[in-house]
Amino acid sequence: MGAEVVVEGLTKSFGKQTIWRDVTMTLPAGEVSALLGPSGTGKSVFLKSMIGLLKPERGRCLINGVDIVTCSERQLYETRKLFGVLFQDGALFGSMNLFDNVAFPLREHTRKSESEIKRIVLEKLDITGLAGAEKKLPGEISGGMRKRAGLARALVLDPEIILVDEPDSGLDPVRTTYISQVFLDVNAQIDATFLIVTHNINLARTVPDNIGMLYRKELVMFGPREVLLTSEEPAVKQFLRGSMDGPIGMSEEKDSATAAAEQALFEAGHHAGGVEDISGVPEQMQATPGMPERQGVRRRKDRVMSILHTLPPAAQRHIIDSLSPAEQHHYNVRQVWR
Questions:
Q1: At residue 338, does pLDDT exceed 60?
Q2: Pfam families of this UniProt entry (predicted)?
Q3: If we measure between CA atoms, which residue out of 251, 273, 249 comes closest to residue 261?
Q4: How many other C-beta atoms can be found within 10 angstroms of the C-beta atom of residue 178?
């Protein structure tokens, strides 16, 4: 099972500019979580802070009892072995074929024999749908295949935590859905903890078990997917709709004059863009049939049902509606809505 990540009061600045402050969240072990937010809110900075590439000024990031913020260089080196990272562009070496790209971490950080490296590399290429492509160069394959090759490389050291930075970057909506399916299939097979940073609303609404959003230098919310997807928070609703109508502007937040001028245009009939109706919680994508059952889904059900009474009513209703009659009986929740 993947490792739990506990973030407490994390604050990061560059000089006098605060990127985000007092971020607190827990990434549940073995579950898939997504982090949303307008451009420039520091989502990628957050990923880099989690693996110690950037040092926050305040707070803790605990992984297996080790605080990434204050630990020694030796502890940081060992803890980083728990991570696999998929960068926006795949970060592949252009002069190496896919086999050598995926094998690179094994050759650099282990003493495994070439026969063992070959077995592992071919296994990870197969998991990510790249069997038979090991001799191709990055320039000879599509953007989606490069993403999958980057994921295969992230998997070779058997990470417990996988960080994914904007997997939809450079991909069309169909390929984004395919790479999303790969994430869920990998999660089903190795039960790793995932954190996906994305702007892609379809991915955010249909893939993760948990969703959070950064806005105005703070974590607006983080929790079960049903909480954010039923939220009445104006910034959350605007972001999910992709509309100009709301507090988010070109420079993150609109001033009152801009907001008033735009509102007058919308009331006069100017289309605010985006999608009108985002009501409801869409069905979550599942692992491909034939894959192992996602253990994170089972654990999430138990965890969410244990905190159900603390969640907003709309989220509660959608969570209960998603349960089978047998599950409703098991959790003794049917009578809540009678």
A1: no
A2: ABC_tran (PF00005)
A3: 249
A4: 15
15: exposed, middle or buried (C-beta count within 10 Å: 0-12, 13-18, 19+)? Answer: exposed
> In whole angstroms, what is the distance from residue 233 CA to residue 52 CA?
32
Phi/psi at 323 (5° precision): -85, 145
Q: Is 215 helix (H, G, I), strand (E, B) or coil?
A: strand
Vertex 43, ends 181 and 281: CA angle to 5°? 45
Does position 244 have pLDDT exceeding 90, yes or no? no
User: Which tokens belong to 281?
Assistant: 């919680």
Length of the chain as a residue count: 338
Q: How far is CA 168 from CA 90, 106, 202, in A?
A: 11, 27, 10
Question: Of 98, 101, 103, nearest to 114 (Cα)?
Answer: 103
Cβ contact 160:3 at 8 Å: yes
Give the dihedral of Cα atoms 99, 100, 103, 108; nearest 10 deg.
180
The segment with the largest mean pLDDT, out of 39-48, 218-227, 269-278, is 218-227
Q: Which residues lie below 8 Å from residue 290, measured CB to CB, with a gap of 6+?
A: none
Architecture of domain 5-229: 3-Layer(aba) Sandwich (3.40)
pTM over 0.85: yes
- Per-residue pLDDT at 73 exceeds 60: yes
Tokens of 153: 């490389």
CA distances from 251 to 41, 160, 241 (A): 10, 36, 18
Q: Of 5, 9, 1, 23, nearest to 64 (Cα)?
A: 5
Q: Which of 50, 85, 240 is nearest to 165 (CA)?
A: 85
Quote the distance between the C-alpha of residue 223 and its chain's center. 12
Q: What DSSP character marks residue 309?
A: G
Nearest Cα residue to 223 out of 27, 7, 11: 27
- By three-state DSSP, how is residue 269 classified? coil
Q: Encoding tokens for residue 26? A: 């827990």
| Boundaries of every domain in the chain | 5-229
